Amino acid sequence: MIEGSVYQLFLLTALIIVITPGPDTILVLSRTLATGGGAGLMTLLGTQTGNVIHAVLAGLGVSTLVLMVPWMFDFLKYLGAGYLIYLAIKLWYSSESVEINSQLTSSRNGYLQYFYQGLINNLVNPKMIPFFIAIFPQFINPEKGNLALQSFFLGITLAVMAILILGIAISVATKMRNVISESSLFLNVANKFAAFVFLGLAIRLLTQRNT
Fold it and tell me: 169: left (phi > 0), else alpha (psi -120 to 50), else beta?
């Protein structure tokens, strides 16, 4: 298994990764402000599930194959951008009613919807693949056991750390939202802001190159 000193170094690296704002963080917080803490938490769980999948794929070498096939990288890029644009349009025309949003997030299907959004947003981001290939091999050792298992362990570690730290951020954002939850102006601005975030992430994906 992974040596203690190596794992400690990974913990420090993971902490830096989590506290550095990225597309997943922006997505989670914007979803929290626009829809509520439950939606933000499920989006967070979705993104971190995606991170674990990326970690295992990096350990198995599948991600390397994706990078070697240019059309596959482009496919992921355009698929992800299209999905984000769809979400942006949906948010732009969403209701300004708190009651409607609350009913949506109170149902099982509503919560799963946000989980899948976070998961898909993470998985179709082609830049996540080289990120995990660059980071994880530095902390796994073929002589210490199964590479996929080691990657899975590191992926779970990163996910748990992100859930704990970003969970606090979601709690703070939720309290801020509750203070002004009766303001239709706030809900309108929050939804429009979230739409711009999704659109910005889509543009970011479209302008990325396989380097």
Answer: alpha
Cα separation values, 205 from 41, 73, 76, 211, Å: 24, 11, 9, 13
Nearest to 51 by CA among 29, 32, 23: 23
The ranges assigned to domains in the chain are: 4-12+29-206
CA angle centred on 85, ends 182 and 134, rounded to 5°: 110
> Which residue is it, tokens 């299209």?
82
Residue 93 tokens read as 């025309």
Q: What is the DSSP string of 102-132?
A: HHHHHSHHHHHHHHHHHHHHHHT-TTHHHHH
Cα separation, 211 vs 199, in Å, equals: 23
pLDDT digits over 63-122, tens only?
Answer: 666 667 777 767 767 876 787 788 788 778 765 543 333 333 445 566 788 999 899 888
Helix, strand, or coil here: 85?
A: helix
CB atoms near residue 22 (< 10 Å):
14
Report the predicted TM-score, pTM, of the whole model to 2 decimal places.
0.70
